[in-house]
Design goal:
By secondary structure, the chain is of the alpha/beta class. The chain has nine helices and eight strands. The chain has an eight-stranded mixed sheet, with helices on both faces. Helix 2 packs antiparallel against helix 9 and helix 4 packs parallel to helix 6. The chain binds adenosine-5'-triphosphate.
Length: 221
C-alpha cells in the first residue's frame, strides 16, 4: 500500500506550537503515516528580513519533533539552496518516492496567496492540498476568499467536503484547534524579553536562549 505523507513547509523561524498542532491534527484526520517538516532555504514570499541560518532553523525543527515518531525533519530545501519553491520540493519528493500519496499542508493565510505561487497548478497535480485554519482566518467558506480567477479552477465534489482542481488534484479544508501564534510575534516577544513559555517546545526555547536568537533585531523582525 502506498504511504500517505504530509508535507508542511515554512520558514520555521522559529517552529512553534501552531505548526506542531496543525501537523498533528492533519496527520490524525487524514490518516497520514508521517509528516515531513520542510524548512525553506529562502522563501519567495518573505524577502523583507534576513532569516536565521537554515541549519539553526532545521535544528530547532529536529528538537521540536524529536519525541514524535510520526514527524520527520527534512533538509531537502536547505540542501537545495536558493529560493525554495514548494512545487520543486513536491516534485523531488515524488521522484524519491513515486508511490507516496503526498498531502501538502498549508494554513489559510498561505492558501489565500497560493494562486500567486510558482506553478501552482502543478502543486495540485503532485499533492492533495489540505488547508487548515490559521487564526484569525478560518477555513469557513474558504473558496470565497480566493480571487474569482483562481476560484474558477476548483469544483466542489458533492458529499465529500472537498474540491477538485482542474488539474485533477484534490483540495480539502480542515478545521483545527486555532492557536493564534506566529513566529513574528514570538521573535518580537523574545526581543523585548517577554516570556514565550508554552508557545515553543521547551527544547526549542532553551536553544533560542542558549544561542541568543532573536535577542536583537529591528521592527521587521
Ligand atoms: P512568520 O510569522 O515568520 O511569517 P509563521 O508563524 O507564519 O511565520 P511559517 O513558518 O511561515 O510560520 O508557516 C508555515 C506554515 O505553517 C504556513 O502554511 C502557515 O499557514 C502555517 N502556520 C503557521 N502558524 C500557524 C498557526 N498558528 N496555526 C496554523 N497554521 C500555522
Amino acid at each position: 500500500m502506498s504511504r500517505r505523507l504530509g508535507v508542511l513547509g515554512g520558514s520555521f523561524d522559529p517552529i512553534h506550537v501552531g505548526h506542531l498542532r496543525s501537523a498533528e491534527e492533519v496527520r490524525e484526520a487524514q490518516a497520514l503515516e508521517s509528516v515531513l517538516f520542510v524548512p525553506a532555504a529562502h522563501p519567495p514570499h518573505k524577502q523583507d528580513r534576513p532569516l536565521t541560518d537554515g541549519a539553526l532553523r532545521l535544528r530547532m525543527v529536529e528538537l521540536a519533533i524529536s519525541d514524535n515518531p510520526s514527524f520527520i525533519a527534512s533538509a531537502i530545501e536547505i540542501e537545495r539552496g536558493g529560493t525554495s519553491y514548494s512545487v520543486d520540493t513536491l516534485g523531488e519528493l515524488r521522484r524519491r518516492e513515486p508511490d507516496a500519496e503526498l498531502h501538502f499542508i498549508v494554513g489559510m493565510d498561505a492558501f489565500r496567496e497560493m494562486h500567486t505561487w510558482r506553478d501552482c497548478e502543478r502543486i495540485f497535480e503532485l499533492a492533495t492540498v489540505v488547508v487548515t485554519d490559521r487564526p484569525p482566518a478560518t477555513v469557513d467558506h474558504a473558496i470565497d476568499h480566493l480571487p474569482v480567477a483562481a476560484r474558477k479552477s476548483f469544483c466542489y465534489v458533492p458529499g465529500t467536503g472537498s474540491y477538485r482542481h482542474e488539474s485533477g488534484g484534490a483540495l480539502r479544508f480542515q478545521t483545527i484547534t486555532g492557536i493564534d501564534v506566529s513566529a513574528t510575534s514570538l521573535r518580537a516577544a523574545i526581543r523585548r524579553g517577554r516570556s514565550v513559555r508554552y508557545l515553543l517546545p521547551p527544547s526549542v526555547e532553551r536553544f533560542v536562549i542558549d544561542r541568543e536568537l532573536y535577542a536583537k533585531g529591528d521592527d521587521r523582525a
